[in-house]
Amino acid sequence: MTPYPDADCAWPDIGFGIGAEADRGKGYATEAVGLLVDYLFSTFPVERVGAATDAANEPSRRLLEKLGFRREGVLRRASFRDGAWRDLVLYGLPRPAWAARRRGGISAER
Ligand SMILES: CC(C)(COP(=O)(O)OP(=O)(O)OC[C@H]1O[C@@H](n2cnc3c(N)ncnc32)[C@H](O)[C@@H]1OP(=O)(O)O)[C@@H](O)C(=O)NCCC(=O)NCCS
User: Fold this and answer.
1) Is the beta carbon of 19 within 6 A of some atom in ligand 1?
2) Which of 16, 24, 54, 91 to mutate to test the pocket of ligand 1 (most atoms within 8 A of CB)?
3) What is the per-residue pLDDT across 11-64, written as a single tens digit (0 to 9) for each?
4) Distance from the CA of 26 to the center of ligand 1, in angstroms?
5) Which end of the chain has fewer CB atoms within 10 angstroms, the N or the C?
6) How far, in Å, from the CA of 23 to the mean position of ligand 1?
7) Strands (DSSP E) found in 1-110
């Protein structure tokens, strides 16, 4: 990642997955992605962290929303998987919203 605000790509887009199905639903991904997000904001001068997920992926959407990510848009029929075209939901977490959560407050950021 390029840690300069005026670079072409000034923010990271993250992806995640728990390999073994038996290990899912235990909170591991929420904890790990939360730590990754904290690391990115604490280490680099990024102004936002982004993520995209299949609109039908409820665990992924729940995880992102629990960490403070907000929906920013939908890319309709943007991904072809398992024999079907699927919508992708774009999510973002701006730095002020992340910082407000860290302070335990509520952010006015949308
Ligand atoms: C998405 C994924 C990473 C979530 O990992 P995880 O460790 O199971 O997630 P967590 O246990 O932290 O749970 C996250 C939320 O999803 C919910 N959830 C978990 N499994 C679920 C299921 N089968 N159906 C509905 N919700 C589910 C949890 O209940 C939790 O929400 P809650 O706190 O409101 O109850 C995991 O399911 C996975 O690896 N899936 C395959 C790869 C993938 O889809 N990656 C995302 C690409 S963007």
Assistant:
1) no
2) 24
3) 899 999 999 999 999 999 999 999 999 999 999 999 999 999 999 999 999 999
4) 8
5) C
6) 10
7) 13-14, 48-54, 70-81, 84-94
Percent of the chain whose predicted confidence (pLDDT) is above 90: 82
User: In CATH, what number does 13-18+25-102 get?
Assistant: 3.40.630.30
Residue 73: strand pairing partners? 90
* Domain locations along the chain: 13-18+25-102
Contacts of 54 (CB under 8 A, 6+ apart): 60, 79, 81, 86, 87, 88, 89
Distance 24 CA to ligand 1 centre (A): 6
Q: Whose CA is nearest to atom 22 of ligand 1?
A: 59
How far is residue 29's CA from residue 17's CA, in Å, rounded to a whole number?
Answer: 7
Tell whether the model's pLDDT for residue 3 goes beyond 80.
Answer: no
